[in-house]
Amino acid sequence: MSGVTVVITPLLSLLSDQVNKLRERGINACYIRSSMPNEEESVLHEMTLKDTCYKLFYLTPEAATSERLMKHFDQMNKVGVLGRFVIDESHCIDTCGSSFRPSYAELGCLRAFKRPFHAFTGTATVRTQNVIVERLHMEDPDIIKMPSERSNLFFKVIPKNDQKSKDDVVKLIIDDFRDKCGIVYCSTRRDTKDLAFLLKTRGISAVHYDGALDDMEKEQNSSAWLSGRAKVMWLLGWELINKMYGL
Length: 247
Description:
Elements: E1 4-8, H1 12-24, E2 29-31, H2 37-47, E3 56-59, H3 61-64, H4 67-79, E4 82-87, H5 92-95, E5 117-119, H6 126-135, H7 165-176, E6 182-186, H8 189-201, E7 206-209, H9 215-227, E8 233-237, H10 238-245
Parallel strand pairs: 1-3, 1-4, 2-3, 4-5, 6-8, 7-8
Helix pairs in contact: 1-9, 7-8
């Protein structure tokens, strides 16, 4: 495919990981975020060159709908390098666009550049599909669906003793999942730290991830888990999931 593909994704913590994996496969990709102001200008300048080396450009909906980026998209379009827009986790247009992250509801403004639009999600009801189509101003779009059933996923309820519930979780991980990768959803930030500490004392490489961490700590911890340096467990505070996805 010709031109630069602009990928809009909600998670800052995964931007660098996705770009690094693409680069490992020989695909020239880049991203920008507020914590890298010195690199941002260079990336944006390269993006508007007719012979730009980039194939994929990752950013958040807040950045994509900003006045500054809209001007860069216009310049990219004029020189013929703006290929298409891809909206990842597009259900957020419905679940987050009304209040928590209004920029998701504003992504339809990118239709002004008259480039192809693609929206991807694994969790869209019929209602959410209709909201996505409406807010992205799609006319008679092709909708491709896959079965929602995942044979490798299952639910299991294990009663816990409140007095030693953390110990029970640690024992379960050590006994049944020692060499496997996984996520533990906790109810509080304190729990994420406590469980990570308990796992480390038992020889299990673990990191925690919650809303109180700064951007650098979030990226370091998520990278450790995604790369396998944190072998077994990434501990993620449930309240952060609520903030990310507006649940």
